[in-house]
Design goal:
Blueprint (H helix, E strand, L loop, with lengths): L7 H4 L10 H14 L3 H14 L15 H10 L21 H27 L8 E7 L4 E3 L1 H6 L6 E8 L12 E7 L3 H7 L7 H20 L8 E7 L3 E9 L11 H11 L1 E5 L3 E2 L12 H18 L6 H18 L5 E3 L5 E5 L6 E5 L17 E5 L4 E11 L4 E7 L2 E10 L13 H19 L9 E9 L21 E6 L3 E2 H6 L5 H20 L12 E4 L7 E4 L22 H6 L6 H13 L10 H13 L2 H7 L3 H13 L8 H10 L15
Parallel strand pairs: 4-5
Antiparallel strand pairs: 1-2, 1-3, 3-4, 5-6, 6-7, 6-8, 9-10, 10-11, 12-13, 12-16, 13-14, 14-15, 15-17, 16-17, 18-19, 19-20
Length: about 700
C-alpha cells in the first residue's frame, strides 16, 4: 500500500504506556488499530521469517486452505447454482497505460464478487424474496475508507483504490466500517506472472505481506466492535486480470501485545508465533474473454473462501454442501437415462463401464480415454511387499491378510523391520483421480482424513489403549524410476503419490465376531466400557467419533492377558463445527440424521444401537432417513432397546436409559461414572489385573 495517512508523522511520536485498567487496554487497542496503517512496514518486519519458511524450491511451506476432496464436493454442490458476471475482466490490465482498462478491472472485480456472494447466499442460505445482507465496495488507500468503485472512479480516485471487499450492510454506517468486512480481494499486477512459471506457485512476499496486513486489520477491527462476524478467520483473495488465489489468516488476538509504540514489531511477532496461515496455489480464474471459469479450480477455491466467509456471519446454511453434493448421483443417473445408456455399472476399481444392450445379452467392455492400463492397477496379495515413504524415512510392509469392512478393502501387514508385529494398512485413492464415484469418497475418509484426525489426537496428547495409534503415514514408493517434478507433484506412474496409513493394534471386528457367534454377554459389557473410554479420551480434546458401527470396533486378543476393544475408523470424526458425521440408517444418532450434527450424547447413542443389534436385537429394514427416525422413536418409546440390553446386564439397561435422557440436550456426558459402573461388571479371568480406564 503506497499511500500515506495524513497523520502518519504524528503517529511516529511516543505515547504514554498503556493503563492496566480495562478502559486503558481498550484505548490501547483503538490506538494500536489507528496506528496500524502501513503494509510495507509490516512486510519489512516479516521478511526474515518468510525467507526462513521457504524451501529449496523457493515455495513457501504454508498449508493450503482447502483440501482437494472438499473442493470436489463443493463442485458437486454447485452443479445447479447459476453464476453470472456481467462486467468482463479486461485482458492484460497492466499492459496498457490507459486508466480505462484499470477502471474496468475494478468494476469487473466488484461484479465478480457480487455475483459470487449473491448466488451462494441464494442457493445455500436465502429465503424466497429475502434480500442479500451484503454488498461490495472498494477501499481507498489514502484514508482507508470505502467507496464503490464506480463512485471512486468518478471522483478521480482510481489510482488510490487498493482492495475490494464483501461487506455486511450496516444501516447505521452506510459508508462501511472495517468490522463489517466479510472478505477482501487485492487486485495486483504480478499474480499471473507467478502462475505462468509454476502451476503450484504461491504469491510473492510483498503480496503475502499486504494480505496479512489487511487480514490482521480486519481482525483488529472486529475485536474492537460488537461485530456480528466472529473473530475466527479472514480470507483474502489475491487476483489479477486472469489468475488468483486465496490466503486464509486466523489466530488468537488475545496473544497480541498491544504496544502502541511498537505496532509493526508486535504485529509481526503475533503473525510469526500465534497466527495460522494457509495459502492456495495460484490458478486461472478468468479466460481471455474476461469470463470467469466458474467450474475450474481457480474460481472454485475463491468461491469456497467466499462460502466460508459468509458462514462466519450467517452460520451453517439451510442447504448444506453435503446435501446439494449428494444430488450429483441422481443427476448423473438422469444423464445416463437421457443418453439412453441403459443400465450401467462400474466395476470394483471404477475404471471400466459395462453396458447391457437390449438387442443382445452380450456384456460389452468399454474402456474410457483416461483409463489406466489394467496391468498397472494396484494388486496387493498376501506376500506382497509395499514400500512407504514419509518426509524422513522409508519402510516396507509385507501383506499378511487382505480384509474388507463390507465396503472397501484394507490389509493386515507387518513391517519388514519387525515382522512379528501385525498392523492395519490402509491405501487411499490416487490424488489424480479428480472424478471418483461419490461412494469412493470413503477411501479419502479412511486414509487422508483419518490420518489427520489421529495426528491431531497425537498433537493434543490424547492417548489411550482403546484408540488406534498412528504407526506411519506417507506415500507409496512405486516400482521403477520416479520422474516426479522437482517442483512437487507426482509422476505419471499410476501409484505415484498414493497415500497410505498404518495403524496399530489389529484385531477382529465386532461385525465378524457376531457372524462367528463369539460376541457374548461378557463381550458386550467389556465392549461398551472400552468404547466409552475411547470416547471419553477423545472428548478431552473436543473430538467426537461420528461413525460408530460394528465394522469400526475391533477386539484385540494377540499378545495381551485380557482381550480389549479398540474404536477404529476415525475418518468421520468431528474436529470443528463445519465437520459432518457419517450417515448410517441403523447406527447414526438421531441428531446426526435430523441435523447432520452431533450432540454430546450422539456417539453414546450410536454405541447403544451397535450393542443392541450386535446382541441379537431385531434389525429393521430401513430405506430412508424418515423410516430410520420413526424406528428410533418407536424403539425408545416402547423401551425395546432397554429391554434387550437389560437381558444382558442391568448396568447396560441403565446406561441406555441415561443416553435416552441426554439425547438432543446440551448436557455433557458423564463418562467417569459409567466407566466405574461398567468396570464393576466386567468378569476378569485374572483377579489381579485391573481394567485400564485411563485416558
Amino acid at each position: 500500500m503506497e499511500g500515506k495517512s495524513p497523520d502518519r508523522d504524528s503517529l511516529e511520536s511516543g505515547t504514554k504506556k498503556s493503563s492496566i485498567s480495562s478502559g486503558g487496554r481498550s484505548q490501547d487497542r483503538k490506538e494500536f488499530f489507528r496506528r496500524f496503517v502501513d503494509s510495507d512496514l509490516l512486510t519489512e518486519k516479516l521478511t526474515d521469517w518468510f525467507e526462513n519458511n521457504v524451501e529449496d524450491n523457493m515455495l513457501p511451506t504454508f498449508d493450503v486452505p482447502f483440501e482437494l476432496v472438499d473442493l470436489q464436493k463443493f463442485d458437486y454442490a454447485l452443479e445447479g447454482v447459476p453464476f453470472q458476471q456481467l462486467i468482463r475482466m479486461p485482458s492484460a490490465i497492466y499492459a496498457s497505460t490507459s486508466g480505462t482498462v484499470e477502471a474496468t478491472a475494478y468494476l469487473a472485480l466488484e461484479d465478480f464478487m457480487h455475483a459470487s456472494a449473491s448466488s451462494l447466499w441464494e442457493s445455500f442460505w436465502g429465503q424466497e424474496n429475502e434480500p442479500m445482507p451484503f454488498y461490495v465496495s472498494s477501499l481507498y488507500n489514502a484514508n482507508l475508507r470505502f467507496y464503490q468503485a464506480e463512485k471512486a472512479i468518478a471522483k478521480g480516485k482510481l489510482g488510490g483504490l487498493c482492495a475490494t471487499a464483501i461487506m455486511l450492510k450496516n444501516p447505521r454506517h452506510p459508508q462501511g466500517k472495517w468490522d463489517d468486512i466479510l472478505e477482501l480481494a487485492l487486485l495486483r499486477p504480478d499474480i499471473g506472472t507467478l502462475a505462468s512459471v509454476e502451476n503450484d506457485c504461491k504469491p510473492s512476499l510483498p503480496i503475502i505481506g499486504e494480505a496479512l496486513f489487511f487480514a490482521l486489520r480486519v481482525l483488529l477491527a472486529r475485536s474492537l466492535s460488537r461485530s456480528s462476524i466472529p473473530l475466527s478467520s479472514v480470507f483474502v483473495l489475491v487476483v489479477d486480470c486472469q489468475y488468483g488465489g486465496v490466503i486464509k489468516v486466523e489466530g488468537d488476538l488475545s496473544k497480541l501485545e498491544f504496544d502502541v509504540n511498537n505496532v509493526y514489531e508486535c504485529s509481526a511477532a503475533w503473525i510469526r508465533n500465534y497466527s495460522r496461515i494457509a495459502i492456495s496455489p495460484i490458478d486461472m480464474i478468468w479466460n481471455k474473454l474476461g469470463n470467469a471459469n466458474w467450474g475450474d479450480i481457480g474460481a472454485l477455491q475463491v468461491l469456497f473462501a467466499t462460502f466460508h466467509s459468509i458462514t462466519q456471519y450467517a452460520g451453517m446454511p439451510k442447504n448444506s454442501v453435503e446435501d446439494l453434493a449428494a444430488d450429483h448421483s441422481s443427476r448423473l443417473q438422469a444423464r445416463r437415462i437421457e443418453r439412453q445408456l441403459g443400465e450401467t455399472r462400474v466395476n470394483g476399481n471404477g475404471l471400466f463401464r459395462f453396458q447391457q444392450r437390449s438387442a443382445s445379452p452380450e456384456i460389452v467392455e468399454v474402456q474410457e480415454e483416461s483409463v489406466i492400463e489394467s496391468d498397472k492397477l494396484m494388486k496387493l496379495e498376501v506376500g506382497s511387499v509395499l514400500w512407504l515413504e514419509d518426509s524422513v524415512w522409508q519402510n516396507g510392509y509385507k501383506i499378511n491378510e487382505v480384509l474388507n469392512d463390507g465396503e472397501i478393502p484394507y490389509y493386515m501387514a507387518s513391517s519388514v523391520e519387525d515382522p512379528r508385529k501385525n498392523l492395519f494398512l490402509y491405501i487411499g485413492s490416487h490424488p489424480s483421480q479428480l472424478e471418483p464415484a461419490w461412494e469412493d469418497m470413503k477411501l479419502w475418509y479412511q486414509v487422508q482424513r483419518q490420518t489427520k484426525v489421529l495426528s491431531v489426537m497425537k498433537q493434543k496428547g490424547l492417548s489411550s489403549k482403546y484408540i488406534p495409534q498412528l504407526s506411519a503415514s506417507g506415500r507409496i514408493i512405486h516400482p521403477g524410476q520416479c520422474r516426479r517434478p522437482s517442483s512437487g507433484g507426482n509422476c505419471d506412474h499410476p501409484w505415484c503419490g498414493t497415500p497410505v496409513l498404518v495403524t496399530s493394534p489389529v484385531g477382529t471386528t465386532v461385525a465378524d465376531m457376531v457372524r462367528m457367534g463369539k460376541f457374548g454377554l461378557d463381550e458386550t459389557i467389556r465392549c461398551c466400557h472400552d468404547c466409552l473410554s475411547a470416547l471419553s479420551t477423545a472428548a478431552l480434546g473436543g473430538i467426537r467419533h461420528g461413525d460408530i458401527r460394528p465394522e469400526n470396533v475391533i477386539c484385540v486378543t494377540s499378545g495381551v492377558r485380557q482381550p480389549y476393544y479398540v474404536l477404529i475408523g476415525w475418518g468421520h470424526a468431528i474436529l470443528e463445527d463445519r465437520d459432518r458425521p457419517a450417515m448410517n440408517l441403523h447406527f447414526s444418532s438421531t441428531s446426526a440424521l435430523q441435523e447432520g450434527k452431533l450432540c454430546s450424547a450422539s456417539d453414546s447413542e450410536s454405541l447403544v444401537y451397535m450393542l443392541y443389534f450386535s446382541s441379537g436385537g431385531d434389525l429393521p429394514v430401513l430405506d430412508s432417513v424418515e423410516g430410520a427416525l420413526q424406528w428410533r422413536e418407536t424403539a425408545w418409546s416402547r423401551r425395546l432397546i432397554q429391554q434387550k440390553l437389560g437381558d444382558i446386564s442391568a448396568v447396560l439397561k441403565a446406561f441406555a436409559d441415561y443416553v435416552d435422557s441426554l439425547c438432543g440436550t446440551p448436557y455433557p456426558m458423564d463418562y467417569e461414572i459409567w466407566l466405574r459402573r461398567l468396570k464393576r461388571h466386567i468378569h476378569e479371568e485374572d483377579n489381579g489385573k485391573e481394567v485400564d480406564t485411563s485416558s
